[in-house]
Amino acid sequence: KELAEHVMLVDLGRNDVGRVATVGTVEVTDLMVVEYYSHVMHLVSHVEGAPGLDMFDVLRASFPAGTVSGAPKVRAMEIIDELEPTRRGLYAGAVGYFSFSGNMDFCITIRTLLIRNGRVYLQVGAGIVADSVPELEYEETVAKGKAMVRALEMANEGLV
Q1: What positions carry a catalytic annotation?
Q2: What pLDDT digit, counting tens, does each position of 30-60 carry?
Q3: Which residue of 42, 70, 72, 104 is 20 to 30 Å from 5, comparing CA positions?
């Protein structure tokens, strides 16, 4: 299941990069490299392409990211809007910057904490594919949120 999900994500990433890269230059430079973090492991792949459009076109083409919405992107976003009772806010959006030198750096806001009106909102998610088991997807979201829960506990205890 994890491999099928990751292949789907790589394909979605290739599609997003292909919308702004020079035709024929999109390639996967790293495929399924395991990265270890405090509470989870991740399969990571890198998708690259030669620049074809400017950084503003890249942002427009990339967000919302197909790797979060699913495919086909427009219909997937319509389904999300129909099924989810509340708006996602920052979750699955983008945070980053454009520099005067022409560089940009953005990330997808996943695993987010938002504090509003004295309440803390923790948002995490998991990728769903045909082979997904709902209970395991839930456990994955809990594992992904543990580091943020621990950070909140430490802050509450005055340890940070």
Answers
A1: 42, 67, 91, 111, 127
A2: 999 999 988 788 899 999 999 989 999 999 8
A3: 104
| CA angle in degrees (0–180, nearest 5) for 97-103-108 | 45
Q: Which helix (H) or strand (E) holds 35?
A: strand 27-36
* Cα–Cα distance measured from residue 111 to residue 121, given in angstroms and rounded to the nearest whole number: 10
**pLDDT number for residue 9:** 87
Q: Where are the alpha helices (DSSP H) in 23-88?
A: 55-62, 66-69, 73-83
Ramachandran quadrant class, 117 (left: phi over 0; alpha: psi -120 to 50; beta: rest): left
pLDDT for position 145: 93
CATH code where residue 145 lies: 3.60.120.10
pLDDT digits 0-9 by tens, 3-32: 888 898 899 889 989 999 999 999 999 999
Which range of residues forms the domain containing residue 27? 2-156
The number of distinct structural domains making up the chain is 1
Specify the DSSP class assigned to residue 7.
Answer: H
User: Which pair of structure tokens corresponds to residue 155?
Assistant: 């802050």
